[in-house]
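Job type: complex structure
Entries:
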Amino acid sequence: MTALVVFLCLILFAIIIVQIGKVTELAAKIRGEEEVQDMANRRQASYSLIFMIVFLVACVVSGAYYKNYMLGYGPHESASEHGSSIDSLFSITLFFTGIVFFITQILLFYFAYKFRAQKGRKAAYISHNNTLELVWTGIPAIVMAYLVIGGLDVWNEVMPDVGPDDEFIEVEATGFQFAWQLRYPGPDGQLGTRDFRMIKEGVNPLGQDWSDVKNHDDFLPNELVLPVNQKVRVRITSRDVLHNFYLPHFRVKMDAVPGMPTYFIFTPTKTTEEYRQQLSKYPEYQVPSPADSEKQMWETFEYELACAELCGKGHYSMKKLVRIVSQEEYEQWLSTQSSYYLGNIKGTEYDPIQEATTSAPAPVVEEATPVTEEAAAPEH
Amino acid sequence: MATTVNPTIKDKDDLLIEDLGYDDHFHEHHDGDKYQSSFITTYIFSQDHKMIAKQFLITGMFWAIIGALMSLVFRLQLGFPDDSLAWLKPVLGKWIQLNAETGMGTLAPEFYYALVTMHGTIIVFFVLTAGLSGTFSNLLIPLQVGARDMASPLLNMLSYWFFFLAGVVMFASLFLSTGPFAGGWTAYPPLSALPQASSGSGAGMTLWVVSLVFFVVSVLLGGVNYITTVLNLRTKGMSMWRLPLTIWAFFITAIIGLLSFPVLVSGLLLIMFDRGLGTSFYLSEIFIGGQALDHVGGSPILYQHLFWFLGHPEVYIIILPAMGIVSEVLSVHARKPIFGYKAMVFSILAIAFLSFIVWAHHMFMSGVNPFISNFFVVFTLIIAVPSAVKVFNWIATLYGGNIRFNSASLFSIGFVSLFISGGLTGIFLGNSALDIQLHDTYFVVAHFHIVMGVAAFFGMFAGIYHWYPKMFGRFMNETLGRIHFWGTIAGSYAIFWPMHYLGMAGVPRRYYRFDTFDSFSHFTDMNQFITIAAIVVFALQVLFVINFFYSIWYGKKMTVKNPWQATTLEWTTPINVGHGNWEGNIPTVQRWAYDYGKDGHDFISQIEPLKEGEQTAH
Ligand code: HEM
Ligand SMILES: [Cu+2]
Ligand SMILES: [Cu+2]
């Protein structure tokens, strides 16, 4: 029944449309084509002027309305050290492209209006103008060069790996369908080696090699907790398909690639509490929080870790909480975390150490990666 | 303009062609006409480029409707995630899951991703590549260079039928019980390589690959033909520098396609090897479905290189024909030569060349060595310069014109507006440092829909309205066309402009819902607004489709050969063009394509000889 109604409505719609069309064609016959075209030129030209004004005003107004979501402005200021240079690069780019946007859109629609066909007027014969061409090739080239230099400057500041003498905290994030597994190195400051063949759901989610003692103090917390103002190097890996380690507030994003660890280095500069304070100044955060009606929105704010590379049907749900805390709180938190090995593996059937109590400890490997490659080696 | 021409009376153009034309004895052989003898050879297995153009166009329109309907379904999900979609159950079947208690119907997330994937694939390849370049290259290349047909009408026919086959395979995949492929139009492995990773990655992905391989065959057969025809079948006097910009655009597009599409096929073949033959080109150290796979040593990033080596040129394969069409249409209706013809050609060439060395700007955050990205940033931002030059030239073409407003010229003006808006956001994304934050957010979605999606559609609409009389001997209704234009430009901006704000706020693309994250859930109203705008824009396209088909049979008849008073050769053919395009001789070309408003003449056709003492640059 509803289908029939919809169908009839569509038919009706089609008939109306055809009739509107016919009316104008009839009018054209009566008035004469030239007359009608002349009217159309006048009318459409003024529409283009109206459209231009409405469009540009809408751009400005909507921009003002959403100004608090702009990068580097208002409540969403970056919470990391490198983030602010990205934000200001954004603003600079917005400035230049904004100028070009307004000039070109205005000229486009204004010329369309101004040079509408009019009886008795003739178009000018202008085929080219080399000086003009040079000018408008040169100016974009200069602006582009300026933006490129600024951009690459930031890029090469942000992306390189840590230097040999840098102090930093290393943590690891592993994406899988559909969650993140975090791992901290524990007191030894070193992540233990992994082999994807040793992964066992529920027992050894990351395939940690328990014969590597560096694994014994590693712990797998449920949230990403980091101290403020300390450099962090996130080792990003994936267990199955591509994922992307994305911390929107920190301007951090990097693919998680199975078989190839990637890195992102950043320094959080605002604790969760400080960011909440920052938000509390804005009216849109002074409303009751959907999470907890007792509190205001800014009070329940949390940093979040998301996935930004399509990884399957649960892609939209790969959330982990991120907490940035003071150094003391961080140490306090660290002390409450206990090693995954000690809690879940030691003494069980999965613990390789029991049988081999007398054998020498496994050789210490410099980096966290190589064992997986070694494990792969016999295949070749 | 309105007076009927008695077909037996020869007009000025006919006389010129008779006098100066070139007699290739085409119509004496009659072998050219024999394959048009029955219904089947005329309308189905036609080898006439004009019929093949119409086939491409109508097939493209079919796919555009399918692709747009898909987007409406997933937009409903994004705009109204908590409203019941139970009413779609009769169409979508098990992909709408009914809650037994409340009767609430929800779209299955895997099908949401399948819809997004199919939408992208269909629009990018079937509509904006085949439907746009296929249609207008076929229609205009022979007509505008002065050829009887394509160099190889047979290959040309095959080109369409391979496209058709690709469509059949893709269409079939929609009905698989595991659903069509759902890993995004870019089909990154391992997601696309492992059936365990996503239900669409089983048979759905196999059919997706098969379909695209057929599609590439179609593009290559078409491309070889376009290139050969432009190089070898130009009529006497039609030097390269006298070609209309449409032909330049189609020509370069075909070359880019020929060089880049095979790379996609190689990338897809390697996926098939990984899926079926146990190779490890893209796979390494994967644990999935409770099992560690044997694959080691491959790199998923390799695929991304192969894909984007096609993928970036592909976006120019889509936009260059639209640019060509817009250049031509603007010039004709502004009654002025296109400003800076040579600069336009050189910028097409520059864009074509540069489009091959910027591909990794899609991969800044993929884990490639950040040092390499430096080069891609530089090349990417260089490509913005020729793009800017084209924009300035279009605007300058309007300056001092005597602009005739109709659907075709309006859509061309709209194209320029969209290309500016979308091109400028490319400058943000091309700067890798900014891409850290903007990559895979709605900012990218806004960028490419405006600059490529909507703009290319506008180019296509401009072309359809402008050359409709040449295709069907009738006009489309102007009033409806203008409603279509104003509604679509306002509506498209309403859909895609707000997405910039979503992107700046960090909202990632390809999310089935936004309320899983506090950070991304602030935009309920905006998402509803976007969905409503999308529905309105869709309705306007229905209006276009009605106008299109109604006008084929009932549109205002074309009574003069050259209704737009244009200079190019297609308007010297008879109103109802037969096979071979010109009845007697082939016209020869005496001047460039843009003598509008020269020396006090409104326009001078390309077939008119230079007057004594006439100055010319070409
Ligand atoms: C002005 C010059 C342009 C620049 C600098 C530019 C830059 C970029 C960059 C860097 C990206 C990757 C963004 C990301 O994924 O993070 C991108 C995406 C894209 N661009 Fe552009 N672009 C430009 C013009 C164009 C044009 C003219 C088209 C098409 C006609 C286009 C189509 C696309 C498409 C389709 C994507 C997204 C593909 C996807 O990830 O699904 N761009 N652009
Ligand atoms: Cu994901
Ligand atoms: Cu690109």
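Summary: The first helix of chain A runs from residue 2 to 31. Chain A touches chain B through 129 residues (CB under 8 Å).
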